């Protein structure tokens, strides 16, 4: 087994490094916040009554991932959020969350809102699957 490399001094190829590992920081003392992941599906009458589009209740037919993160004693201005194709990286002065997402997401179509009364950050991300264009209406 031999790995070809551009530089003979490198000990691994970039293909060998798992996606999102650049965000891992095991020495960071900040607490991991509580969070929940929900899957959201856009359903119309043609789905509910007639089953015309072939959607089912599984996550494979969902269009969005909604992540609700509890951030007590946090101000909106203290939140730093970075979204990559398969990684959500959230940092505040007291909390840190590195979340590997179950599906790749479209980083340009996401949105986030901070519910200050509930102290929850709600992040909605559009799932990006390879063959979604076949089923789009």
Task: Walk me through this protein's architecture.
The protein has 137 residues and is mainly β. Helix content is 6%, strand content 34%. It has two helices and seven strands; from the N terminus they run E-H-E-E-E-E-E-E-H. It has helices at 45-48, 132-135, and strands at 35-40, 64-70, 80-83, 87-91, 96-100, 105-115, 120-127. The strands form two sheets. The chain has a four-stranded antiparallel β-sheet, with no helix packed on it. Strands 3-4-5 form a three-stranded antiparallel β-sheet, with no helix packed on it. A hairpin with a 4-residue loop joins strand 4 (87-91) and strand 5. The protein is flat and about 60 Å long. 10% of the residues are buried.
Beta strand %: 25-35%
Mean pLDDT: 81
Q: Helix coverage percent of residues?
A: under 10%
CATH architectural designation of one domain: Sandwich
Outline the low-pLDDT stretches. Answer: none
CATH class descriptor name of one domain: Mainly Beta
CATH topology of one domain: Immunoglobulin-like
Number of helices: 2
Using only C-alpha atoms, the radius of gyration works out to 19 Å
Based on secondary structure, the structural category is mainly beta
| Biggest β-sheet description | 4 strands, antiparallel
> How do the strands line up in the largest sheet?
1-2-7-6
> How many beta-strand runs?
7
Order of helices and strands: EHEEEEEEH
Shape: flat
Cα distance spanning the termini: 47 Å
Family: Belongs to the PIH1 family.
Protein name: PIHD3 protein
InterPro entries: DNAAF6, PIH1D1/2/3_CS-like
GO cellular component, one term: cytoplasm
């Amino acid at each position: 087994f031999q790995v070809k490399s551009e530089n003979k001094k490198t000990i691994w190829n970039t293909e060998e490094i798992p996606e999102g590992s650049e965000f891992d920081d095991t020495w960071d003392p900040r607490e991991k916040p509580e969070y929940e992941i929900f899957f959201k599906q856009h359903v119309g009458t043609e789905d509910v009554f007639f089953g015309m589009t072939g959607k089912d209740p599984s996550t494979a037919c969902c269009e969005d991932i909604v992540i609700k993160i509890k951030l007590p004693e946090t101000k909106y201005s203290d939140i730093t959020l970075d979204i990559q194709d398969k990684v959500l990286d959230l940092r505040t002065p007291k909390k840190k969350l590195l979340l590997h997402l179950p599906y790749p997401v479209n980083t340009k179509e996401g949105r986030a809102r901070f519910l200050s009364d509930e102290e929850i950050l709600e992040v909605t991300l559009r799932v990006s699957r390879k063959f979604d264009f076949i089923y789009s209406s």
